[in-house]
Amino acid sequence: MEPGSGSGCWFLYYAYGSNLLRERLLLRNPSAALCAPARLQDFKLEFGHHQGRTSSVWHGGTATIAQSPGDEVWGIVWKMNTCNLSSLDKQEGVEDGIYVPIEVNVHTQAGKVLTCRSYQMKDYVSGPPSPQYKKVICMGAKQNGLPTDYQEKLEAIETNNYAGPFDNPMQNWKLFILARGELVAARGPLAPLGGGGVGAEGEGKALGHSCAGRSRFPLGRRDRVWGGRGSKKSILFPDRKLFLAR
């Protein structure tokens, strides 16, 4: 059986790196809807280069998680349609063997335990992130209200001080803007996905996204995301058959 699976058209994804930032995740995965901030116990956040090679996108180490008794990682649980599973895997470099999908149990601030799909880097050499990559992570942590002490830990992470050019502005001009911290300040907040949002317990509702035909969450002017109300039928995880081992 593969990680983070169940039956139906939905799965939960636990993000701890650049996909903490909504705008970053939505670039390729428009069905993603906020579920809850959550803590991963007995793991620590690390940065590294897959097989010692520096990321050509971020020009520094990228985030991964490693087992570490007594430590914890904070992140965001996103609820996603299985139609975005392949795009998420591609973003994480699964086909290239850079990251592998894993199943993790995380604890929300409301005391719930959620089983999610996440990703872990294979065969890496530790190395600091670029300032741009770190900034996107810190922006995402602030955007989603992760604990203040954890945000301070993220801010204290040392970078490689990369100040050179991005040959291909991180594969998308929007990410180039994000890395410089300009996007959030230059535009308003995203509209709630599918009528959802963050409730009193820090958990949102994600309703109805269909991947048949046009997306119900198209990117419109100013990249604002509008959610349509569709089927209320949803479950936590996608069909395990979708997670066949490579």
From TrEMBL:
InterPro entries from the UniProt entry: G-Glutamylcylcotransferase, GGCT-like, GGCT-like_sf
GO MF, one annotated term: gamma-glutamylcyclotransferase activity
EC number, as in UniProt: 4.3.2.9
Active site: 92 (proton acceptor)
Positions of substrate binding: 13-18, 133
Function: Catalyzes the formation of 5-oxoproline from gamma-glutamyl dipeptides and may play a significant role in glutathione homeostasis. Induces release of cytochrome c from mitochondria with resultant induction of apoptosis.
Alphabetical list of PANTHER family matching this protein: GAMMA-GLUTAMYLCYCLOTRANSFERASE
Assembly description: Homodimer.
Record family assignment: Belongs to the gamma-glutamylcyclotransferase family.
UniProt name for this protein: Gamma-glutamylcyclotransferase
Source organism (scientific name): Chloebia gouldiae (Gouldian finch)
Upper classification of the organism: Eukaryota, Metazoa, Chordata, Craniata, Vertebrata
